[in-house]
Amino acid sequence: MKTLKRLISVLIIVQLLNLMAATCIAQTAFKGIELNSWKPQSKDWHFSLLIGTNRNKTIEEITEPKITIVGVADLKKRLSGLAKGENVYWQNYAKEPVPKNIFHEISEYSKTIGINLHIFHK
Of 115, 36, 37, 44, nearest to 81 (Cα)? Predict the structure, then answer.
């Protein structure tokens, strides 16, 4: 009988944990997320996602290899981990504009996952 009570208790706890995990909503960043893009010569587009702050980031911070995201597919994976309703502010640091097909792909993907994408042009 004690074993049955323990089993039932464990099952109830597991169900409660599952319910809590399912209803847990990731919070958006207070000042949003900064999406930065640049294109090294003869390479794919590079991106970084940084927490928004009141200060301008240095180019070294933006292009730090440890946080660099290479290619649109990897960027989409990282965007999918952000909270729904997140504000993402996109700044391009390349000498050339982001190609329309890449811009459109990222813009549309952001809409489908519930991210508010804001674009800044230099």
Answer: 115
Give per-residue burial for 54-69: e unless 16+ CB within 10 Å, then b: eeebeeeebbeeeeeb
Task: Please state whether beta strands 116-120 and 87-92 pair in parallel, antiparallel, or not at all (unpaired).
Answer: parallel
Q: What is the DSSP string of 77-114?
A: HHHHTSPTT-EEEEEE-SSSPPPHHHHHHHHHHHHHTT
Instruction: List, in order, residues 6 or more apart from 31 with CB less than 8 Å away.
Output: 51, 52, 53, 54
pLDDT digits (tens, 9 = 90+) for 67-93: 999 999 999 999 999 999 999 999 999
Looking up tokens 């200060």, which residue turns up?
55
pLDDT at 13: 52
Asked whether 49 and 69 are in contact (CB, 8 A), the reply is yes
Return the DSSP state at 71. Answer: S
User: With 60 as the cut, is the pLDDT of residue 17 above it?
Assistant: no
